[in-house]
Design goal:
alpha+beta; Immunoglobulin-like; Glutaredoxin; five-stranded antiparallel beta sheet; about 45% helix; binds zinc ion
């Protein structure tokens, strides 16, 4: 495909923050952390840290993005240590990572987390603390520290409007302003399709290449993704290389990711139950500049009879890049068809039906009073002028052959038998 080959990959994330490990309201917590970080660590390009002072043990963390986090602690001298453990949990993750920390005679605790082995989500807030068991019994804990796991490989600049904060490292202020403008246009376009509101400002990180961006997707392990949103973090990452297509890419990626994010804000936990074809379909029809490759791809797939059934795109998309592309193209075309047929109200009740927990098949039946198969047939007839009878016959063709064999073969035998009998009769 051409350079227009970015794909956004949504994970069906429904995990919640452990309230014990993460007691303060997420957004507020993150903003506080950002301010603390910015104040303490301005000017540090590769490593940023935040220190949590505790009455008994102090703890601090430094990270090298995508590689490791070094956690350090200090125990008051004279306390004999039996064992020491470091705990950390990234925002939105249910799993608390733990590791045995080392200590020395000066009471210095150390634990290094290998992020190449256990990646955490970029742009999440990480909470951590030490627990120490004393020789002879008794425990000490550090206070909980936190840091914002931003991609600090780059010297980000920032610019903001009422609804968006853009972060970029390559390009001028005009580029940053165009990111903000496209975000506002995308927001307006989304609100034509669905009555959604933006509840909190969105952070947009614009990378200068897909390669540089992909390090932020370490935890997903996908090599063909071009943009991504973690809607629960209120963050989107996009890849916008310099060149004649930069503006078009912007007009695709930002509104697309924004639709995911706003759907999440509207549907909450129910967001995870939306079929992937609808989630990606809605995001794709929100793009200001539709992907022209999709139509070519679809016509080819129809011609070669390679279309993926919509029912196979409820839970997951194909893992390979070409299969995933076709899935995106189908989801986009099918969702656009639903929008044309049923309008905003139809799409809204469909999204709501799914968010309420209905299955992929049941959702369309309740919201649109049609089965998925009926809608799919109607879509293909309308979008690709497929002849319904021909399609039905093509689908039935193996059965027609068998039926023909079952009916015609005995009929032939009977005819041959009749002739033989007639001939024998004449001969006899
Ligand atoms: Zn997407």
């Amino acid at each position: 495909m051409t350079s227009l080959t970015w794909i956004c990959l949504m994970t069906k994330r429904t995990t919640k923050i452990d309230p014990l490990a993460y007691p303060v309201r997420k957004e507020l917590w993150r903003r506080i952390t950002i301010i603390v970080l910015a104040a303490i660590l301005a000017g540090s390009l590769y490593v940023r840290a935040v220190r949590a002072q505790a009455g008994v043990i102090s703890a601090s963390a430094q990270y090298t993005f995508g590689e490791e986090i070094v956690f350090r602690g200090v125990i008051p001298t004279g306390i004999p240590v039996e064992s020491a453990t470091l705990f950390f949990v990234a925002e939105g993750e249910l799993q608390t990572h733990t590791g045995a920390a080392t200590w020395d005679e000066r009471g210095q605790l150390l634990y290094i987390a290998d992020l190449t082995q256990s990646p955490i989500r970029a742009f999440s807030t990480v909470v951590y603390w030490f627990e120490v068991t004393k020789k002879g019994g008794g425990e000490l804990k550090s206070e909980r520290g936190a840091f914002y796991y931003e991609d600090n490989r780059f010297d980000w600049q920032a610019r903001e409007s009422k609804d968006f904060r853009v972060h970029w490292y390559e390009g001028d202020t005009a580029f940053a302003q165009s990111l903000l403008d496209v975000a506002e246009l995308g927001l307006a376009n989304i609100q034509v399709i669905l009555p959604l509101k933006l509840n909190s400002p969105v952070d947009i990180y614009a990378y200068a290449s897909a390669e540089e961006m992909r390090a932020t997707l370490q935890h997903l392990g996908k090599s063909w993704v071009g943009a991504h949103t973690d809607p629960d973090l209120g963050v989107m990452v996009v890849s916008l290389p310099r060149g004649p297509e930069q503006r078009l890419e912007m007009e695709r990626q930002i509104p697309h990711e924004l639709m995911h994010l706003m759907l999440y804000q509207r549907l909450g936990a129910g967001y995870g139950n939306i079929p992937i074809w609808l989630n990606e379909g809605l995001a794709s029809i929100a793009e200001l500049y539709p992907n022209p490759d999709y139509l070519i791809l679809l016509n080819k797939a129809v011609k070669e009879d390679n279309m993926l059934p919509m029912a196979s795109l409820c839970e997951t998309f194909p893992r390979d890049a070409s299969g995933a592309f076709l899935a995106y193209a189908e989801a986009t075309s099918f969702t656009r068809f639903l929008y044309q047929q049923y309008g905003t109200a139809g799409l809204e009740s469909l999204a709501r039906a799914y968010a309420d927990g209905l299955s992929c098949e049941r959702g369309v039946q309740i919201a649109l009073d049609r089965t998925l198969t009926q809608l799919e047939r109607q879509w293909r007839q309308q979008a690709f002028r497929e002849d319904a009878l021909l399609t039905a016959l093509t689908n039935l063709s193996p059965w027609i052959v068998i039926l023909a064999l079952v009916l015609i073969f005995p009929l032939g035998l009977t005819l041959v038998g009749t002739r033989k009998n007639a001939k024998n009769g004449r001969d006899g």
